[in-house]
UniProtKB/TrEMBL annotation:
Keywords tagged on the record: Membrane, Transmembrane, Transmembrane helix
Composition bias type Low complexity, residue spans: 137-170
Superkingdom in the source lineage: Bacteria
Region annotated Disordered, chain positions: 134-178
Transmembrane parts of this sequence: 12-31, 37-60, 67-90, 96-115
Keyword NAD belongs to the record: no
Protein name: ATP synthase protein I
Length: 178
């Protein structure tokens, strides 16, 4: 896991854990032991589900940037199916208070999202290629010079733009191919 991803995970998990403790205390005060158990189970579900997403996307980012979206979507779909399975499996169980469970899930989801946004906006993640260290080549492997925004191609190998319209340029290219 990248250090920035671990920082974001900690930045969201710690406030959510503290909010989970508050939800357990509120569940205990409102609905007794069953309320506390429902809130605790809700806290575990939220923290586990959101942590799985962060870990999956972080792992996928090591493979390739294109895999990040796939990992995020598949972890989301998997979590939806697991949640449906949990709801079906625990339908009619009276060991905990369902309202305390539901309210703790809602509250902790809001806390997690807010904390993750806060941690992400405070993270110092580079969006450009940094200057190369001494002894490295001047350009990056992608062909962008150091300091240029990622994804930009500033190589001098492309021809100068012409004053032709796109239609004229297409016709000229077709004539050269004959």
């Amino acid at each position: 896991m990248h250090s920035s991803d671990a920082r974001i995970l900690r930045g969201a998990a710690i406030p959510s854990g503290l909010a989970g403790l508050a939800a357990v205390a509120a569940g205990l005060a409102v609905a007794g032991g069953k309320g506390a158990l429902g809130a605790a189970i809700g806290a575990v579900v939220v923290i586990a589900f959101f942590s799985i997403s962060v870990v999956a996307v972080s792992y996928a980012s090591k493979i390739s940037p294109q895999m990040m979206f796939t990992a995020a979507v598949f972890s989301y779909i998997t979590k939806i199916f697991v949640m449906f399975a949990l709801i079906i499996a625990f339908d009619g169980v009276s060991a905990w208070n369902h309202k305390a469970f539901a309210w703790s899930v809602i509250a902790l989801t809001l806390v997690w999202v807010a904390a993750e946004i806060r941690a992400s906006t405070r993270a110092k993640t580079l969006y450009y290629d940094p200057e190369p260290a001494a002894g490295q080549a001047a350009g990056t492997p992608s062909g962008t010079p150091s300091g240029a925004p990622s994804g930009s191609d500033t190589s001098d190998s492309s021809p100068e733009p012409s004053a032709e319209s796109p239609a004229q340029a297409g016709t000229a290219a077709a004539d050269r191919g004959r």
